[in-house]
Amino acid sequence: MSKSLQAIRGMNDILPEQTPLWRYFEGTVARLLDNYGYKQIRMPIVEFTELFKRSIGEVTDIVEKEMYTFEDRNGDSLTLRPEGTAACVRAVLEHGITGGGQVQKLWYIGPMFRHERPQKGRYRQFHQIGLEVFNLDGPDIDAELITMTWRLWGELGIRDAVKLELNSLGTSESRGRYREALVEYLSAHHDKLDEDSQRRLKTNPLRVLDTKNADTQAVLVDAPKMADYLDDESRVHFEGLKARLDAVGIPYVLNPKLVRGLDYYSKTVFEWVTDKLGAQGTVCAGGRYDGLVEQMGGKPTTGVGFAMGIERLVLMLETLEQIPEEISRQVDVYLCAFGEEAELAGLALAERVRDQLPNLRLQVNAGAGSFKSQFKKADKSGALYALILGDDEMAQQVVGFKPLRGQGEQQSIAWDALAAHLATCVVQG
Ligand code: ATP
Ligand code: MG
């Protein structure tokens, strides 16, 4: 194929053999979110560039080097969303649905775009399920978010492979005091820092904490600790969160270097990490952002949220072989009809059955074909049963009912009785 007809690097097709697993994952999360009382919101994929600059922060990796930004025909600068929180905050403000302290528990799903170096678990178009809660400021809701993800890992069968890392960044005041102390300490060791950290020291010093550079990490061993600068309010909040996680029995590790890449976090930050995916080990990350709404022009409104990367979680299900068997079977019953008259009768019969069993996955053979070829297709479809309509069946107004997975002999079922019969032998989702 000519080069111009390839997908963009880092932007992947999700092929039909992969979509059952995606839908299983997405369906499981959606059901859980419904059950906990979260409502879905859908935002546009493109926003004004300014939105992301103002919310995510000018000196973050995303805004500095990862955004897909372009000018549209009006000359407006637009950006493909790199994450969901900014647009979600914009939407709740625009529609006034968090005004007067109204609580909103929202979730979204969809593609995000970041110009990163593509590798396993890191793509340029990737998908997130994210969640944002507004106007609940206690540790109880932070705990609910984490508890819900803990339940999700349990349902997916990957709980043993993920670890919760926690930190508190304090209020912006205490973080400011900490930042000063950190800058003072790091400046005294300036020459030992890697180049990137030297730059971050000037622009976004907290981010030096999550450096991967060994020399800088050595310098950080004796650096001031955020925990020593936490204000009382944040300390009480953090204790409240930990007490709740202990009550549910969710293990966690405190990671004082966890700062998250985005500017807007305060108090609680957390990440679920795994060692099963190589370098791209964070599968879900989030935290509290009590100042963001105000920073974006709204009234003071607290917020907390997280986002999980669908590609990484699907990869985990594959790696850990936690793929439920039933999701790969897409067909319950396959109808074969031989001859034009039987095809017409088969079509009408199939529709009658579908009226009565709307959840039945019934596939009607298309493209005619010999007995042998239709039967082969029925078998390959994965169906549990084949329905057969030939001359004999037409004459008697019955349908041949043949188990394909070795449970019993073929039998004849009257057309009128077919739906009732299927209802007894196919478990419908
Ligand atoms: P990382 O440190 O891996 O770059 P991040 O802190 O930039 O992650 P967030 O902005 O917190 O990521 O996004 C939440 C989640 O979305 C991540 O934990 C990850 O699972 C997923 N994610 C982020 N960037 C990508 C990407 N380029 N490709 C695939 N998944 C991603
Ligand atoms: Mg990143």
From TrEMBL:
Q: Which UniProt keywords apply?
A: Aminoacyl-tRNA synthetase, ATP-binding, Cytoplasm, Ligase, Nucleotide-binding, Protein biosynthesis
Under the heading Pfam families, the entry gives: HGTP_anticodon, tRNA-synt_His
Q: Where found in the cell?
A: Cytoplasm
Q: What is this protein called?
A: Histidine--tRNA ligase
Every copy of the Aminoacyl-transfer RNA synthetases class-II family profile domain together lies at 1-358
Organism for this UniProt entry: Pseudomonas helmanticensis
GO CC annotations on file = cytoplasm
Q: What is its EC number?
A: 6.1.1.21
Q: Which NCBIfam families match?
A: hisS
Question: Gene3D superfamilies in the record, alphabetically?
Answer: Anticodon-binding domain (3.40.50.800), Bira Bifunctional Protein, Domain 2 (3.30.930.10)
Catalytic activity entry? tRNA(His) + L-histidine + ATP = L-histidyl-tRNA(His) + AMP + diphosphate + H(+)
Quaternary structure note: Homodimer.
Show the GO MF annotations.
ATP binding; histidine-tRNA ligase activity
Q: Which gene encodes it?
A: hisS
Q: Which family does it belong to?
A: Belongs to the class-II aminoacyl-tRNA synthetase family.
Enumerate the residues binding L-histidine: E83, G84, T85, R114, Q128, E132, R260, Y264, Y265
State the Gene Ontology BP annotations: histidyl-tRNA aminoacylation
